[in-house]
Amino acid sequence: MRKISTVIACLLMFSLVLAACGGNNKNSESSPSASSASPSASPSSSPSDTPSDSGSSGSGGFDPATLKATISIYYPTPDQVEKRALEDDRIKRFNEVFPNVEVVKSDWQYNPNEIGIKMGANEAPTLFNTYATEGKFLAEKGWAADITELFNAYDKKDQLNPILLNQFNINGKIFGIPQQGYVVGTVVNKKMLEEKGVAVPPLDWTWADVLNTAKAVADPGKGVSGIAPMGKGNEAGWNWTNFLFEAGGEIQSVEGGKVIAKFNSDAGLKALEFYSQLKEANVIPADWALGWGDAVGAFAQGRTAMVIAGPDGPVDQGLNQGGMSPADIVVYPMPAAEAGGKHTGVLGGDFLVINPNATPEEQYAAFHYAVFDYFTDKGLESLEANIQARKAENKFFVPPVIQYFSQDSEYGQKMKDVYAKYDNVYQYSDELMTLLDGKPEAQFNTQEFYAAMTNVIQEVFSKKDVDLKAQLDAAAKTVQEQFFDNIKVE
């Protein structure tokens, strides 16, 4: 198995119900432009879990019992009722340890088009959510606090998942706190295939399998698509990037201190040709301009047989909103371009970032609020209570693909034991684990790349006889001149 696949496989063994897992974010964990809203709960700490770093902030010690500060924190959206309840409980317990810290709930969801305005107006929360692509961007803009000293003083730093943590390690400095991660896969409505008499493809599948399955199950006259690739917003470019990776392509490279666009390659053309085949085969939705929520909603409602995303979001919606059973849903890795090829999916994650404009006291309080839930027995109790509450409501709990803790963490085994106790925890397959191949998103201007490719994909989906190579070249030229040419890599 390839090295990164092996690493991810180890991580997943500690993350999921079985000794395995499946391969984050638009109002869910798994699109490129929002934080996770998967049903998994962040484990909660107990009131006795006071910070064990003696209050060292790097600028003087702080006593949790006497520290006075006001911090604003990322608060789940109104539709995430269970997560709001868990956050309210965490605030209550946090204030038992930090009685003089006022915690203000912020409903702002990270948006790369808004963060500059928020920072300029000093309206960004003290602690806000973001996603894996944003580490270098936020650090270079000065919009994420350097929390290296706080991190180094954290006694459990060595137990954090390095696969996630490294995405916010910029030149040896830490700018973000990992929450959870994902490897993009394809979620399949097995029941739809069986009802149409369509053979269920093997997990070790290919682009040809995807196309043939989509053709067999699609019913355009009834508004049912075989697959629903996202076509609106940066999600469209994000979805397509998986196929670029599977074809062996790259988004960019660093050459002689310069960032060079590489996605208009033969591999990029091959990936775009596959998208064109999907359109020509009439297996995508007639209204193809779908964002993350639209595509995942179509899956949950049985209007498409396949959707591309971090798996826990579509699985959760299918089970808890679409009325599906676990037997109806199969999580696949991304398909290989050809038999024997890599099942490469974008490796991403959800993070918390501290506002650099906050005072040392506020940054200290925000950091400890962010990790307050981590590695505690009370956290396991809170998680188990959440699973039990869902069971009482006949709902399922869908774990995240990759957790914040490292693969050799004792805490990881404890959490796995909790999952194994309940039949309403969704289980990913062992075979899936062996096939996953995660590739991190681009280091520079990822969102701008996604946006440029979204324009290309919309051309392909909306017009006939599109010159695919010309579209790719134009997009690469735009990204190169407007963004990459402004970067100097030391």
Task: Report on this structure.
This protein has 490 residues and is of the alpha+beta class. It has two domains: 3-181 and 348-439, Periplasmic binding protein-like II (D-Maltodextrin-Binding Protein, domain 2, 3-Layer(aba) Sandwich), CATH 3.40.190.10; 185-309 and 445-486, 3-Layer(aba) Sandwich (D-Maltodextrin-Binding Protein, domain 2), CATH 3.40.190. It is 39% helix and 14% strand. It contains 18 helices and 14 strands. It has helices at residues 3-13, 81-97, 115-120, 135-141, 148-153, 162-165, 190-195, 207-217, 234-246, 266-280, 292-300, 312-320, 360-370, 377-392, 410-420, 430-435, 446-462, 468-482, and strands at residues 69-74, 101-106, 127-131, 169-170, 173-174, 177-183, 185-189, 252-255, 258-261, 306-309, 329-333, 344-354, 402-403, 437-440. Strands 3, 6, 12, 13 and 14 form a five-stranded mixed beta sheet that branches. Strands 10-7-11 form a three-stranded antiparallel beta sheet. Helix 2 (81-97) links the parallel strand 1 and strand 2 (101-106). Helix 9 packs across helix 10 (266-280) and helix 14 runs parallel beside helix 15. The longest helix has 17 residues, at 81-97. The protein is globular and about 65 Å long.
